[in-house]
Amino acid sequence: MLDSLFDDVKRMNKRQFIYQVLSFGMIVSSALMIWKGLMVVTGSESPIVVVLSGSMEPAFHRGDLLFLTNYPEEPVRVGEIVVFKVEGRDIPIVHRVLKLHEKNNGTVKFLTKGDNNSVDDRGLYAQGQLWLTKKDVVGRARGFLPYVGMVTIYMNEYPKFKFAVLACLAVYVLVHRE
Amino acid sequence: MAEVNETVKINKWDGAAAKNAIDDAIREVLTGDLKCNESFALIDGRLFLCALAVGVALYALLWDYLYPFPQSRLVLIVCVSSYFILMSILTLYTTFKEKGIFVVAKEKVGNNTRVWEASSYVKKHDDKYNLVIVMRDSTGKSREASFNKSFANYIDTNGAVVQTIVTNEITKLYNSLSSEKKEK
């Protein structure tokens, strides 16, 4: 069975084998370039995020896919849903803007809160941080797709499953000709 | 990898696998029995385009890692657009230049160089293997011959390509294309 799996590879000549590896590389590169392209178009370093917690219910549920933009010329407003990073936390947070102070020179500081949380986010911010600023923002929610992100969540909860799926795909692409 | 394995088994219901196997057999005949030199320029061109595209993507990845996003914007724009341009060039290259040609072989006859190009295609859900062989000589004249037969003609019940049948078919085509020239 394993023997027959690699038959295709064994019969390839040098150039066919290189092409096989390169076409696998191109599949990965295409996904990567689409992602980087989206980054450039939306201005956000992470244009698509998955909601991981229920803190924004009933607006967003665990597993919703959010589409973000982060254009510098668009002002942040109270009531908008922003995705922001907090120092010392790897995973960005999706919450709503509760209070906002804007100065004449355009700098803003704002406070956020999860719709489903009873208190604001000061407890989540870094030690001693009271406000968020523009540089903490990853993006603002512009659209969402419900439950699609559950796949990502399961993948991250069971890393072995993720690696198994990825390995199977890689082997399939490398071993099969065209 | 390149050696011919006599016991290779092909699932002849898998059109792509069967096509690849017969393509390989025909390459063997042209470059082996008929003593033509295989020319790799066409396939090397494709490999170069692919490698360039993957290189551009890797460069974008590295640059974005070294200089996180807002800084790397310009480089990303250049890389992403050139990647998609390269992909379109690659598509054009395979559809209009390669056109399914799987072997190009050169042959010296006197002070004439003849170029043989063999291309094949199989329609989806069809058992017919279509082969086109084009012969070009140095005067720029070209002639072509083609045939279209079921896979079953070349692959036995065990799933092995019958090399002798392929050799006969190709030699016949080769001779008819070569001799036509002499009659003129």
What does this structure look like?
- The complex is a heterodimer of chains A (178) and B (184).
- Helices cover 35% and strands 22% of the residues of chain A.
- Chain A has helices spanning 2-5, 7-11, 14-42, 150-157, 159-175, and strands at residues 48-50, 65-69, 81-84, 93-102, 108-113, 132-133, 137-145.
- Chain A has a seven-stranded antiparallel beta sheet with strand order 1-2-7-3-4-5-6.
- Chain A folds into three domains: 1-41; 46-145, Umud Fragment, subunit A (Ribbon); 149-173.
- Chain A is built from five helices and seven strands; from the N terminus they run αααβββββββαα.
- Chain B has two domains: 15-40 and 101-180, 2-Layer Sandwich (Double Stranded RNA Binding Domain), CATH 3.30.160; 42-97.
- In chain B, strand 3 (112-121) and strand 4 (128-136) form a beta hairpin.
- Chain B is elongated.
Secondary-structure topology with pairs:
The complex is a heterodimer of chains A (178) and B (184).
Chain A: H1 2-5, H2 7-11, H3 14-42, E1 48-50, E2 65-69, E3 81-84, E4 93-102, E5 108-113, E6 132-133, E7 137-145, H4 150-157, H5 159-175
Antiparallel strand pairs in A: 1-2, 2-7, 3-4, 3-7, 4-5, 5-6
Helix pairs in contact in A: 3-5, 4-5
Chain B: H1 15-33, E1 37-38, H2 41-66, H3 69-98, E2 101-109, E3 112-121, E4 128-136, E5 142-150, H4 163-183
Antiparallel strand pairs in B: 1-2, 2-3, 3-4, 4-5
Helix pairs in contact in B: 1-4, 2-3
Task: Looking at this protein, list some descriptive labels.
heterodimer; A: 178 residues; alpha+beta; Umud Fragment, subunit A; seven-stranded antiparallel sheet; 7 strands; elongated; B: 184 residues; Double Stranded RNA Binding Domain; 2 domains; five-stranded antiparallel sheet; 4 helices; disordered N terminus; transmembrane (chain A); serine-type endopeptidase activity (chain A)
What's a quick, concise take on this entry?
The complex is a heterodimer of chains A (about 180) and B (about 180). Chain A is α+β, with helices and mostly antiparallel strands and about 180 residues long.
